[in-house]
Every structure is written in structure tokens, then in C-alpha cells.
Amino acid sequence: MRIGNISEEESKHALHNMDDPYSSDPQRHKVLEMHTEKPFNAEPPSSLLIENFYTPKNHLPVPEVDPETYELEIEIEGRTEIKTLRLEDLKKLPKHTISTTLMCAGNRRREMNKVKEVKGLSWSLSAVGNATWTGVRLVDVLKSVGIDDTTQGFHHVHFGGLDSDTANNPYTASIPFYKALDKHGDVLLAYEMNGEPIPRDHGFPIRAIVPGTVGARNVKWLGRIFVAKDECDSHWQQKDYKGVSPSADASTIDLSKLPSIQELPVISAICKPANGESVVVKDGHITVKGYAWSGGGKKIIRVDVTVDGGKEWHVADFDHQENAEPPHHWSWTLWSARIPVAQGQKTVEIWAKAIDSSYNTQPDTIDNIWNFRGFLNNAYHRVKVNLKP
Fold this sequence. Notes:
Blueprint: H1 8-14, E1 33-36, E2 41-43, H2 46-49, E3 71-76, E4 82-86, H3 87-91, E5 96-103, H4 109-115, E6 128-137, H5 138-143, E7 156-164, E8 170-176, H6 177-181, E9 188-193, E10 196-197, E11 207-209, E12 222-228, H7 235-238, E13 267-272, E14 278-280, E15 285-293, E16 300-306, E17 314-315, E18 317-320, E19 333-340, E20 347-356, E21 381-388
Parallel strand pairs: 3-12, 14-21
Antiparallel strand pairs: 1-2, 3-4, 5-6, 6-9, 7-8, 7-12, 9-10, 9-11, 13-15, 15-19, 16-17, 16-20, 18-19, 20-21
């Protein structure tokens, strides 16, 4: 049926990006180091990353969601009824706020690439951020549909996003049932980030926040929750985000038989100075700054820094750390250290390692934790710098 005509000039705009699912994505800041444009994957410069304790923080196109018509479906395996909650329904439940760090499993992958080529985006040390999130506890939402920690027969809770790939497959991931139902696990269905409605890039209007776990389980643009016996069968749960042996071969290993990455190991990174930077020596010392974090609600209790290959270690000061105690310590720690250097020395290699409240620490080299996907690089962070008198 013909409705009318548009001019030739209007048709150029009307048809622009018609077949591009990323055409309506939000604008991003120019300071970000972009790894891919579509989908948009980028990280801030490391020097800016630690300027604030709370950072203003996709695999698939960013969906456009109308909060007035938004609905969250909750389904329980074996039951016919599907519960639907609107945004205003969620906001009627008790409000809860937590601060937590979210980190990609591929953070610091670039260093693994230098040892041996890996598969994945070449993330530096800024595929991480820390924010406050406000919303409702998942445990309260599940209790409203008759699921609590006494419920038997279920082992996983699935999260389905409203974002889909070109084959119309939504992004889905799952977490263990015990984490979802632990009232101290602090899993949120968040609608605010840093005191404001969640930006589109970060999951508006509702995002699953699973503190202490890998970023891939913190599903954005949440549209569905499924309580199930089995783990999610999506690509991102079964064929990716797995930890493997350094000798594993990508062409032969069956990733579906390996456990999925959930909690992340202890890690630290040197953000200032950057690798290759020239640093001014003041009163025989240089200043080093960075972050440290551990998954699973563990707290950083110490960061050690050395400039002589580990002969002498210097304990860093904590510039900002949350007061929350383990196992509910979800945020990173920002640290700094004033390190003496020998007079006349031209270069140094700075090493940093963190220790968490379970006395887990970082492995000293990448070689024995290398893997073909470049995941879970938590080896000592090493930065070589030039010294200026």
C-alpha cells in the first residue's frame, strides 16, 4: 500500500544505516582506546582509570528499551506460569545499594599476547571499573515467585539480555543457584549506577549485578530470569569464558566439559607510571600508583612493589578502600607507593603484586598461566620506565 513520497534527499537519511544493528548505539567519549567499533569495545587510559574510586562506566548492539513498556519475565523450570514484572513493580521492592568492581576475564590480555598470541581483543589493564549500583536483591525477587534457599532441585539461575546477535540469539549467562539465593551474596537487579539511572551502554533499564564474579555474568538489559536445573547452554557459558591449561589446544579441547569462570582471582595493576614512560626522580624516589582487587568478596590486605627484581619489596599505602569486610568486600583498592631508586640509575622495571584476605597472591610470571583465550591474567604486573633526575 502506497502511503506517500519522500524526496531524494530525505531518502538518503531514511535509508542510512538501515541494515546496521549498531546505528542507534550511544555516542562514546573520544578519550577511550577503541578495540572494535561494532560492537563497541574500548577502555580508558590507565592514568585516568584510577583518578576516581568510582568510575563512570558489549558484545552485541545496544537495545533501545522504553521504560514505560519494559517487562522482566521470570520463569521456573517445570512450572507453566511465567511471572512478569514491570519496572515500577521492581522499584516497590526493598531498595539496596552496593559498591562493586566489574572486570572482564580478558583484562591484561595484551601481556599474554607478548608471550604467545592469544585469541581475543587486546585489552590492556583498564577492562575494569568500580561503581555503586542500586536496585533490588535477586533473592527478594525470587522469593516473590516462591523460590528461596530451601527450594530443592535447582542449581542455576539464568539471565537473558534484550540484546541479540545477527541470528537473533539473545545474550544469556548463568550463575550458581547458591549465589543467587544467598542473601549475603548481594546479587542485584540494578536500575541505578552511581546514583543515576543506568546509562544505555551499561544496561538500562535493568542490569544483573553479580558482585565478585566475572563481568560476563553481569548481564545488561535484563529481560528474562530462568531458574533451572542445568547451567545456561549459550555460547558465552559453554564455549567461552573458561579457564584452560597453558597446553590446551583450541582446536581439540571441549570447552563445554570445563567449569565456567565465576569468581575472579586476586589481581593488581600499575596505572602510573605507564610502561615506557619517563619518570622524574624526586628526593631519590619515584611514585607508583595502581589498583588491586580480588573476586568472591575478598579484601585486599597488602600490595607489594619492587624495583629490583624482588630483592626488596615495599608495602604500598591504601589511598581508598571500602570498609566492607569479607566475604562482602566487592570493590577494588586504590594504592600508591613511594619507592627509592639508586642514584644514577637510568631505567627500572617496577613489579606489583597483591595479597587478599584469604592470603591468595599473584603468580610471578605469565608463562605458566598462559592460555589461548588470554583469560585470567593475574601475574605480577611489570612496567619498565626511564628515570629522569
